[in-house]
Amino acid sequence: MEVLKVNLKNAGYYDKKDAIKDIHFSILSGGLVGLIGPNGAGKSTIIKSILGLMEDVDGDVTMGQGSKYAYIPEHPTYYDELTLWEHIELAKAVNEIEGDGYYQEAEKLLTIFRLTAEKHQYPGSFSKGMQQKLMIIIALLIKPKLYIVDEPFIGLDPKAIKDFINLLKEEQRSGAGILMSTHVLDTAEKMCDRFLLINYGNIIARGTMEEIRGQSVSDGSLMDCF
Ligand code: ATP
């Protein structure tokens, strides 16, 4: 089952509609797709377009029937006036999640990510890595059919990276589709089934990492990114 189908053309900033030129791909249930490419290639713009955060994008984005999605942003976002636990409560209410199992799961994730002691503190006082962990915990609690993850490893300690990968793989095995933008290629290579190599707003190669390396050999400068 397709959880995401993307067909985007001509998106950008201000009057320049060239950050995305022609991007089309889909993600199946249980698929983990890595979005890779050099700085400025268009990866974040693709993610923003999928989330409906870009103006005047041509084309369309379809999420599978009933596909609830969770977005883990590159830069954590939070409410200054809410504590960590209140963020968790808010996510339950907004996503209309029933039952107390949610809170048990939340406690478990707080333990895994070593945030139990900070439960009643405000995320504004956290380090970037701790804020990122909160974004991850909330996404996992929502149990979406689709994860959209932008540069998840930056700022995370090695244990958190390992735990996050394991939890994400578990979600994948349960049928979630995942789109993950990253520069951490060795980790991505172990995780993703398929990659999309982006450059100047286009997909210039797609497939396994081995296939991508083969396809992008013609562009010497791009190979420096691997
Ligand atoms: P990185 O790996 O550095 O995060 P990226 O692949 O995510 O890069 P984007 O951030 O999508 O790349 O950038 C694509 C193009 O859009 C670049 O030419 C960039 O300069 C431009 N761009 C991105 N954000 C803005 C903005 N807020 N205003 C104007 N131009 C932007």
Distance from N terminus to C terminus (CA atoms, Å) equals 32 Å
Rg over alpha carbons: 18 Å
Which structural class matches the secondary elements?
Answer: alpha/beta
Give me the number of helical elements. Answer: 8
Globally, the shape reads globular
Largest sheet strand order: 5-6-7-3-8-9
Proportion of strand residues: 25-35%
Q: Main β-sheet: number of strands, strand sense, barrel status? A: 6 strands, mixed
**How many strand elements?**
9
Mean pLDDT: 92
Low-pLDDT parts are none
Ligand list? adenosine-5'-triphosphate
Amount of helix: 25-40%
Looking at this protein, list some descriptive labels.
ATP binding; 6-stranded mixed beta sheet; binds adenosine-5'-triphosphate; 226 residues; 9 strands; AAA+_ATPase; alpha/beta; single chain; 3-stranded antiparallel beta sheet; globular; 8 helices
